[in-house]
Queue: 2 jobs
Job 1
Amino acid sequence: MRAARFCRGVLLALAVALAGFGAPRTVPGICIVELQGEPGVERNVRRAVAEVRRAMEGRRPAVRRGQRDWIRRSGLNDRAILTTMDTIFNAVVVRVSPAERARLAGLPGVIGVYPVQEHVPTMDRAVVLHGVRAAWERMPAEARGGAGQKIGIIDSGIELTHPAFQDPDLRMPPGFPKVAREEDREFTTNKIIVARNY
C-alpha cells in the first residue's frame, strides 16, 4: 500500500514537472503494468544517498526475479515486453490491446495498469503559454510597459542568439553590462545585461 502511494506521488511529481508541456497524447497499445512489491528505493528514501544506492542495488535482484516470474505467469509473449523498471517503480512496460490491458489489470500481483502518455514541449510558444499578450494588453501604457524593470535568471545556460534575447532598438541602462570577468562580456547582449560564467 505504501509502495502504491509512493509511486502515485512520483507520478504526480512527474506531472507537475511536465507542466510546461502540452496536453499528453496517449501512445496507442503501450501501457505500464505496476506490480506488487516495493521497488528498489521505496523503503530507503530517507537514508543517505550512498546507503540508498547500496540498498537499491541489493533490492534490484529480487525485484527483477519477481518481474521475470510475473512475466512468465502473465502469458505475454516476448514481443509484448518492451522494458522493465526496478528503481523507483516496480513495473513492466508492455505493448498490448485494450482487451489484453483489462486482462492484465485482473492478474495477481498487479496494482494498476496505466496508459503511456507522450508529452510534447510547448515552450517554443512561451508567449502564448504564459499569456504574455493578455498581460501586455492590461498595461496602462503599452508603449512604456516594463520600463525600468530588470529580470534576473540563474540558468545552466541560454542561447544568446535566440530572438528573445535580441532587440537592436533597446538601449542598455547606464552602467551595464555588468560581468564578473572581462571575458564574460561575450555572454551579454543589449537584452542580457549581466553575465557571470561559472
Job 2
Amino acid sequence: PMLGGDGPRRYLLAIVTPTEARGSNGLMGSFAELSANEGHVAVTRVGRLEDLNAGLDGRAFVPAGLTEFLARYGRFDPIHNWQNATMSPDFPTTARLMEQLYPASGGGTIDGVVAVDPVALAAALKTTGAVAVTGWPVPISGDNATRILMYDVYTQLTDQARPGFLNGVAGAVLDHVLNTPTSSFASLVRAEGPAVAGRHLMVASARPEEESALRELGIAGQMPTPNGDLLSVVTQNAAGNKADWYLHRTVDYEVRLNVDRRSEDADLTITLRNDAPSGGLPKILIGNPIGLPPGTNRAYVSVYTPSTLLAATLDGQPLQMETGTEFGMSAYSAFVTIAPGSQSTVSLRLHQELGAGAPYRLTVVHQATVNPDQARVHVEAVGGSAPPRTVADATVQQEQDIRIEANAA
C-alpha cells in the first residue's frame, strides 16, 4: 500500500545535512516530492527550502497535535521557517509537522515523509553506481558523495551556483535509484542497513498502522520510550553555518547503582571539540549571522533523561540549564559556544529512584552526526555486603543506539 498498491500515494523527501545539525539529523536544504502508484515511483517536484518558506510567508498557521513540540521549540518559529522543522529528535514528530507544513507552503497533501542525508545517498550509490551531475567535474559515487555534499560543495561553488547544483544532485540520484533493476533492489536495501541504524535514513507514514510497522522495522527514527534508564545527547546548530563538519563529541556516562536504596547516581560529561579554523573558508562554512568570530560553533545542547538534574557546569563553572519535558522524560538544555580550535565540557550530576527487583537497563540514543560520537558507559554497583563492582563497561564509536542490561542484585 505504501507504494500505491491500493491507490496513489504522495511523499515528501527531505534531504537533510548533519553539517548543520538538528534533532532529526540536520537542516533540510533540498526536497523532492515522490508519487507512488501500483509500485511505480516517480519524482514530481524538486526544490529548495526557500521555495517552501516563500509559500509560508505571511500565513497564520498553527499545526494540530504538536503541543509538546511547540512548547519546546515554538520560540525558534519552526512553523514559519522550514530550517527549524527538524528540531525534534523524534522523527515521527518531525514528520507530523511536515505533513501539515507542506500543504500550507503550497504543496499538496502528503502521505508521509522520507528523510535522507549524504550518508544514505552514498550508500545507495555504492549499489547503483556513480552519477554525473552538471556543474561537478567528476561523477558522484558512493566513495565521494559524503564529502562532496557535506563539505566540497561549500568550498568550491558560489552561493549562486550551489542551489541549482544540489537540486541537480537530488534529481540525478533519485532517478538513478528509482531506475535500479528489481534484481538489485535487495542489495540496495541491505546497503542502507547501517544508514538506517545511524538515523541517516528515516521513513514516516501518516497512517497509524504503517507507522507502527515502520517503528518495528527500526526505520522510523523515533525516540525510544524509556524502559529503565535512557540517555540522549542532542546538539543543534545555533550559528546558521555548516561548522558541525568540524564538531567532535565525546560522551562519558558514569553510573553508580545503589543496590540497597534501589537508586542511581550518574555523572554525565559531554566534551564538544571544535576543529574549525578561524579563517580562510567561505562564510557558509565557518561564518555566522550572530556576530561571533569566524570558526565559532554555537550549539543548543539538550540532554534527555528520566533522571533529575542535581547540578550542571560548563568548563567547571556553574551552568543554568533550561528544564523542559518531551517524550515522557526531562529535557535539560543550554546554549554552548565553542571557539575555533578549542573544546568545551558540559557536566551534569543526575539522580533517579529505581524500581524494586528489576535489572538495570540503559539505552544510549544515537544522534546522526558528521563525526560519530566517542561514547563511554561505565556502570558500577555499590552497597550491600559486597565491595563496589563493575557490572558494565563499554567504550565505542557510536553510530547506533547502545543498549545495556545489568543485573546488580
